[in-house]
Each structure stands twice: as structure tokens, then as C-alpha cells.
Amino acid sequence: MDGTHNQWTYLGRIAPEQCEFELVGKRFGGGEYRAKLLGLWEPQRRQEEYLEQVTFALCDRAWPITAETLARMREQQLK
């Protein structure tokens, strides 16, 4: 979350094999995250099946916020 109430910054999609806490921490840094879990592509709807949403936090100081995350947060604030 970027500090504003109920405002989340979209960081992008990652493949299921990259969905480990350590990999998320290395790429994006520590913080609070909301992940949408998607299933198979549904051609008639032209989107993936929505499975569920989970929220988690990486609070360890070993993961400072990365430049990629800061850039995406700034980009969203300009919109």
C-alpha cells in the first residue's frame, strides 16, 4: 500500500514460480501487498479466471523498497 487509505500501487504480474516471499521481497522490497490469484485463460471472457485475493506483508528490514517499486508508486501518484 502506498500510504493513502485503500490505495494500492499496481506492480505487475509475476509467474506462479516467482511467487515466493523471498523473490517478491528481492524484486519489490518490503511492505504490504495484495495479490490476486488468477486461473486459466477464459477465451470467451478474454481474461483469466479469478480465484481469490490475498494480502500479506514483508516487514523484515532485509528488504528495502526497490527502485522499481518507488518508480511505480510515483507514476501512480501522477495520474
State the main characteristics.
79 residues; alpha+beta; 2 helices; two-stranded antiparallel sheet
What sequence of helices (H) and strands (E) makes up the elements? HEEH
Arrangement of strands in the largest sheet: 1-2
Mean pLDDT: 85
Percentage of residues assigned to helices: 25-40%
The low-confidence parts are: none
> What's the main sheet like?
2 strands, antiparallel
Number of domains: 1
What's the gyration radius in Å?
A: 14 Å
First and last CA, distance: 16 Å
Strand count: 2
Classification by helices and strands: alpha+beta
Report strand %.
Answer: 25-35%
Number of helices: 2
Shape: globular
Task: Describe this entry's structure for a reader.
The chain is of the alpha+beta class and 79 residues long. Helices cover 25% and strands 30% of the residues. The protein has two helices and two strands. The protein has helices at residues 21-28, 67-78; strands at residues 31-42, 47-58. The longest helix is centred in the C-terminal third of the chain and has 12 residues, at 67-78. It is globular, with a radius of gyration of 14 Å.
